[in-house]
């Protein structure tokens, strides 16, 4: 009589049943037309916000599933849904807006999603998550301002090409950051459609920023729902969130970066908003409350305070240039991203409205921020819809609101390390690393004899760590881990030899299973169990029941929280089912240690005396359960 081992694995799933009201008439599919789908940032890296337009005011949602589980456009039964909220659009937009927040995303996962309702889903789109800790890159785009050239199709083509070029070169970029002015004319939906034409905006999260061309209507808010948004009157240029304007300030944390986005259209209290004082208070409050949750702080707003072209000397820019810098320095802001002037500039490190280090050389490739040093970057046009030529400094001084010349480079404004206008599309890439930010301005169209992808400017910013020394240790992500089992050693036949007739009543045989090695390196520390059973012992036409086999499991090598299963008597002893039904060999509870264990079992076979002579064999089927 012999026993040998085979294996199978079982994955436990949970099936859910949708219960509907019996007898209810079949529901007609919602006829809503769905459009303008855009993926936006959520409150942190585990979230995304999807926003879209609907022709009907119906109940809708976002459906989400791992992309690997979606086949032929069919979402699995276990797909998640996230209910949408929304409201009626303004009359000139028509229809309704919807948005839903996707939560609970996992690292390193490709997801498929679609919007709508059962029977009327949009096409499916995909996005991916990456590591939720550590280094990452994001891309920053200035003023697409679709329609600014007077030719929407041209502007759309340039914008789409910049998205394609930048994401082909940086497919793992994690965020697309807006410099504001998505469109030329706030409520012109044809321009919004052109802005949204590229599927890249459904694959990578867009961090919306409101520009002066977006502010004059509700279309910006209808199209681009943002997380943690404060829609107080203070952050609306006219002080009235209910009016036909868009606005609001918001923040979110992506990995180790706190992003704060301001509606810089609201700067004059005379127009009804809270002005710059409200923004200063907002930035101060957000950083005081959440700054410790991130290593980096990045501010984004539309109206550049340090730039070099048509808007460099604007009166409102001069006001902000006095109102903002000291607070940003005091709060340890690392990087400020701006738009509006359709020119690329990179500032010197600015502290309290002055050049932090008078010796910083123009165009330096590496800068070291002392206390309060802040880098300000203005992006050029990402679509090519409009460029502004660089203007000349004047004699209004080299600090604060002044637009005087840089003593080290008199063609430039005092605050700018680099000024560049090639009348060619570009974008800014920011590499966020352990102890540096690398900021690059990159051509998305050929210019100045340089190809697409060539670098206009490249600077590494080293942050200030105070007077003390900081010590950092990087704890890598543990391997996702696996649970599994193998036969420990050679999977030889478990030969129980020749049974011995005992007391004239039964035959007895004994042995041991080949030990089972269980390994569990999962971070989830989820419970597991190994069980086994045997079928009938068979020799040709002859057989006897597997229930006559019993066992006594034991822990040969402790680990992974393993506990040996209970003894099971031969059915000969207790008229029980022995190992003919599944019996536990070993298990571990939730929260157990990671590692491995070796499980063994003594086998105890007692066969009734009337069983015919033969050479019987059965199969021990081992089943692993884990969740
Ligand atoms: Fe602008």
From TrEMBL:
Domain annotation Purple acid phosphatase N-terminal: ranges: 37-129
Domain Calcineurin-like phosphoesterase as annotated: residue spans: 139-344
Keyword check for Signal: yes
Coiled-coil features, chain-numbered ranges: none
One protein family per Pfam: Metallophos
Ribosomal protein listed as a keyword: no
Signal peptide: 1-28
Entry keyword set: Signal
InterPro entries for the chain: Calcineurin-like_PHP, Metallo-depent_PP-like, PAPs_N, Purple_acid_Pase-like_N
Protein name: Metallophosphoesterase
